[in-house]
Design a protein that fits this description.
This protein has 181 residues and is an all-alpha fold. 80% of the residues lie in helices and 0% in strands.
């Protein structure tokens, strides 16, 4: 099967739409756009790329833009995807920062910010549940999810330790899964 290619312009526009779709976390919109709407990636591909993006330094969604952009458009595609993802939101955040500086003392503004925070948590949770659904296709991988949750929440381990703890089992199970296919 030949891999699809996208022009830097297509990547810029696509990631601009993703970047402008959400504040405080566009990962749910990225998954919806790349997997469900545009079908650029399969759900499994998205999860695999995101897994890599979470263990390297930098914001996950920017890392995702680099990976997807370079996969479908080379180095120019990676640059276009990152610029598309970030330019619009940066301009809006600069404007909002100016407004916040002048109006942050108002109770209404504080209430709006609390509401927006709750929406962000809900969006992140819904993406997590969608990605978890993929793991039910290979139930053994749920053990990795459980170890990761325990390491991060119960034992309060940092990201590096969580990765070191869960990776050996994840790699072993991923190999077994790949051999099954």
């Amino acid at each position: 099967m030949q891999q699809k290619t996208l022009t830097p312009k297509q990547l810029f526009i696509g990631f601009s739409k993703i970047g402008m779709s959400g504040f405080g976390g566009v990962l749910p919109w990225a998954r919806r756009t790349l997997v469900e709407r545009e079908k650029i990636l399969t759900s499994e591909e998205f999860s695999a790329i995101l897994g890599i993006c979470q263990i390297v330094p930098g914001p996950n969604v920017v890392n995702l833009a680099v990976c997807v952009g370079s996969r479908f458009g080379g180095a120019r595609g990676a640059v276009a995807a990152v610029l598309g993802l970030t330019l619009g939101p940066i301009a809006i955040v600069m404007l909002l920062a100016t407004l916040y500086e002048h109006y942050s003392h108002l109770d209404t503004v504080q209430g709006i910010l609390r509401g927006i925070s709750a929406v962000g948590v809900g969006l992140i949770a819904s993406t997590g549940f969608k990605m978890l659904r993929d793991e039910f296709q290979y139930p053994a991988m749920l053990l990795v999810v459980l170890i990761t949750i325990l390491a991060a929440t119960y034992f309060h381990l940092g990201l590096g330790w969580v990765v070191l703890t869960a990776s050996p089992l994840a790699i072993f199970l991923a190999r077994k899964k790949a051999l099954r296919i």
